[in-house]
Protein 1
Amino acid sequence: MAKELSGAGLRGQSAGETALCTVGKTGSGLTYRGYDIEVLAEKACFEEVAYLLLHGKLPNRTELSQYRNKLMSLRELPQALKAALELIPKDAHPMDVMRTGCSFLGNLETETDFSQQQDTADRLLATLPAIILYWYRFSHDGVRIDTSNPSVPSLAGHFLAMLHSDTPNPLHEQVMNASLILYAEHEFNASTFTARVCASTLSDMHSCITGGIGSLRGPLHGGANEAAMDMIEPWKTPDEAEAALLDKLANKEKVMGFGHAIYRERDPRNDIIKQWSKRLSEEVGDTHLYAVSERCEAVMWREKKLFCNADFFHASAYRFMGIPTLLFTPIFVCARVTGWAAHVMEQRANNRIIRPSADYTGPEKAQWVELDDRP
Ligand SMILES: CC(=O)SCCNC(=O)CCNC(=O)[C@H](O)C(C)(C)COP(=O)(O)OP(=O)(O)OC[C@H]1O[C@@H](n2cnc3c(N)ncnc32)[C@H](O)[C@@H]1OP(=O)(O)O
Ligand SMILES: O=C([O-])CC(=O)C(=O)O
């Protein structure tokens, strides 16, 4: 039996129904439409999982091939969006670029009718990697990349190919595929709930997804993978990491990449990404980063019984694949757009505007004081 959750932050309260995902039902499990995350991460490609979430069932071979072709055909960015991305400064945060890019696309390709929702979701899924990498490569390397990439069918490989202007390394493509699956969906987390609240007002898909991006940006949610990397990067040995972590705990600092609002024992995504991180560390001949990460995991468990969430070993895994830290959370967006869009559709299918109540804590009755008479 999972331990009871209660307290602030609406913890433990049901805020609606979903057929998309279960989180921590048995303390640590995660399923998408009934399929265990371990099975999906091992056997599926990300497009198969996206189809499962957005269309309600696993695709057969023909459906998957058609779906991949459809997503590939949607990769090109409109010229006006490229021009807008070129105006965003190099030192902007990539999550702000994602937010603007998504919102700007909503101006150019507005969802005017909910009958367009599947196509709008597919278009966003196909273009979000291009939005971030077109801006990144233009602002950092001065190149205007081709975002169509017809020789790379998978979204995972497409991301890496646009980043490195090279054919993706097969191992890296495999890890990226697993990572996108792990990040695709997670029930009523903060960003998905944001998207659902927006959807409940009958707003458009781009607004819902833009809101989701804003909520994911924070370090208590998706931004933790970036924050975890910034934390572990300076630590050159496990002993140095242990000493620094103990200091943080003594100072009552939050350690990014640890703990979870729902899981009480472990985050099932951690075992999977940790294994990939280990494999990548061997591939690149890493001398310390994986060992530092493992020591952090041991110390946090020993000291606080806090476990790594999905974000912690993503940091080292992405680093081993040569991905800049600032792109970590945008990758989360490229994956989670599937979950967000599926939740928007589910909310629309059985909608009532989401409007909870609040416990008032202000003054009972206040006396009006004229402007000139105020102290
Ligand atoms: C993909 C994702 O979004 S996963 C989450 C990513 N976020 C992070 O990694 C940020 C770091 N973690 C955290 O801030 C929290 O664990 C959250 C936001 C994920 C969950 O928050 P909560 O549900 O409030 O955590 P929970 O109720 O389990 O906290 C219990 C206690 O452990 C402490 N704690 C929880 N996580 C951490 C942490 N990472 N570092 C230090 N202490 C922590 C809390 O401060 C709390 O202490 P208190 O009782 O003295 O106040
Ligand atoms: O569920 C949560 O609160 C956060 C999380 O792990 C996710 O969104 O993947």
Protein 2
Amino acid sequence: MQKIMLIINPTSGGEKALDYKEKLENKAKKYFEKVDARITQKAQDATNFATEASLEHYEAVLVFGGDGTVNEVISGIAEKDYIPKLAIIPGGTGNLITKLLEINQDIDGAIDELDF
Ligand SMILES: Nc1ncnc2c1ncn2[C@@H]1O[C@H](COP(=O)(O)OP(=O)(O)OP(=O)(O)O)[C@@H](O)[C@H]1O
């Protein structure tokens, strides 16, 4: 069964992240049979969730957050035997990584453009 893990930092970018949770889940359901949303509560949660996604062979990880959260997720999947696909929605304040990757800086636009 194809599964995706959503990793959402609820404090990113002025606490608006959870407003997008349902939209993210609905989008992910178009591509994956199982959508597993994880909400971070503290530093390192995103790393631990991402490591779990690697070890359990999730097809993809979608991270909603700023550069700090993206950094944590990359740390969690880096140098593992299995590395899930990574999707990033710019939910933080700076979002430098997504700017460099030329990901749409409008959150709704970035979600609409997601394609697995
Ligand atoms: N529930 C939480 N409460 C407080 N801090 C958290 C929580 N979940 C994760 N964090 C921490 O918040 C940090 C900053 O998050 P993130 O970079 O996504 O948002 P940001 O404030 O928009 O920052 P940036 O300016 O880098 O875009 C993360 O590195 C993480 O350690």
Protein 3
Amino acid sequence: MLSINRLSKNFGDLKAVNELSFEVPDGEIVGFVGANGAGKSTTMRIAMGVLSASSGEVLWDGAPISRDNQRSIGYMPEERGLYPKMKVGDQLIYLARLHGLDKATAAKAVDHWLAALNLSERKNDQLQKLSLGNQQRVQLAAALVFDPTFLILDEPFSGLDPVAVEVMSQVLIERAQSGVATLFSSHQLDLVERLCDRVVIIREGRLVANDTVANLKEKGTSTFRLVTNCPAQTLEELLRELQIPASTEIGKDLSQVSLTWDGTKSQELLGQVLKHGQVLEYGPIVPSLTDLFKTVVQAPKEEEESK
Ligand SMILES: Nc1ncnc2c1ncn2[C@@H]1O[C@H](COP(=O)(O)OP(=O)(O)OP(=O)(O)O)[C@@H](O)[C@H]1O
């Protein structure tokens, strides 16, 4: 398990990471989400020991980062970092050996990951001759080739075509199923929603949400929608009678009325509407992770609220 405990990082006056705490349990994929400059890469760099913290700590299975446990972490840095002129296969073997694999095991692992990421034919090409998307696949192979227990991936999906996204997604799901703890940052919230057990949202270095996608959606569901063929005038009378403040919209063909409201007296309204017509749609509007993210990121900050 990866534990981030009250981690802070200051760059001069800027608090890039501010008392941040969360965990990535074994076998879970945790999505790390935040606007540009929120502090995701800084947190990941500190976790990898590339950058020092101003305060707080990062623990890998209860221990601070060391040469030993660094070997069990697959890292894909934002700035990438492979050798452009080295052949794909050679650098993966080099990395696997660096992480302690013997020659034969390293060669086998490289062939396995190149095949899994559809790169076998590029094994003897220089990295720089590959397209950016394929270079990114090699970066993922580099993070995986020594069979890490943890994965820290900084925007692994950026710039990938849909096929590559699918390949990478499957790889991450399989790794999680075999017990690997994965933290990945991404701005592709549809992917985060699909892949992650848990989502950590940060804003200006601070934690604003740490929950399952399902729980976040449940908490963020505050709007109801009802569509009916009951006459608009009748519906408006019902709303007045029940004192429900709702916005109604009459369909283009005038045969349907839809309304959205905060869910007050939803059952009573449903019962009344059914006496006057058919209910064609009824229920809470479940927000997407993108909607929730916008709400969280655009919400007034606490200090502004308290002014
Ligand atoms: N070495 C540095 N020196 C000074 N400021 C830095 C340094 N590294 C990062 N920052 C600042 O820290 C803040 C957090 O940056 P960071 O790269 O962690 O954000 P991020 O969430 O990864 O953003 P993005 O989604 O754009 O990659 C930003 O304001 C950034 O400008």
Protein 4
Amino acid sequence: MTETILNLAPSLGVRAKTALGKRNLVLVGLMGAGKSAIGRIVAQQLGLPFIDTDTEIERVSRMTIAELFAAYGEEEFRALETRVIKRLLRTGPRVVSTGGGAFINERTRKQIERGGLSVWLNADLDVLWERVNKRDHRPLLKTENPKQTLKDLMDKRYPIYALADITVQSRDVRKEVIANEVLTSVIEHIGKDKTQ
Ligand SMILES: Nc1ncnc2c1ncn2[C@@H]1O[C@H](COP(=O)(O)OP(=O)(O)OP(=O)(O)O)[C@@H](O)[C@H]1O
Ligand SMILES: O=C(O)C1=C[C@@H](O)[C@@H](O)[C@H](O)C1
Ligand SMILES: [Mg+2]
């Protein structure tokens, strides 16, 4: 009997999708926080298309992020990122995982504020370092002391990521656990909004 009742309850994904309505869900946070990995799972659970802005930028420019930085510099990369994100948010709803610097750029952040619900995947230095030091494709971390660079970026950026609508702590547990926490937080956040 109990089993039947449980089976009839709408899944977390369905409830979060209903709460979201036409809004995009936008994941923000530092390199290695899990935006791409968690975003993909969250999108599956919501039954929404998933897009990663770094991947989309690489697709439209036919260059890697590292090549874009090397050829045109960070400023041009940010301008392209702003344009790509604006287009993606206009044609949603979808789950959008952003590049680590997107929410730090004021123009892009304003677009995200208008076009979606933002979720900051917060993580501590050791978790991030453990994840990013396995690969060396991130141009901002090509420094003498990349762990210190990551720490400097945390100090500079965390007060800005904290402006996101929702914060979820990314840590060393299964990705599905974090994805479920994102969905639960969306339901709670939108429920709170409605009672105000
Ligand atoms: N909860 C988790 N447990 C274990 N590994 C994880 C978890 N979340 C993410 N990872 C792994 O950490 C690495 C970095 O994650 P991911 O690429 O999703 O980060 P990101 O926030 O998109 O970073 P970037 O801004 O550089 O694109 C990946 O290999 C991913 O599989
Ligand atoms: O944190 C950042 O500024 C970046 C993160 C990556 O996702 C890429 O968007 C790029 O390497 C810049
Ligand atoms: Mg990513």
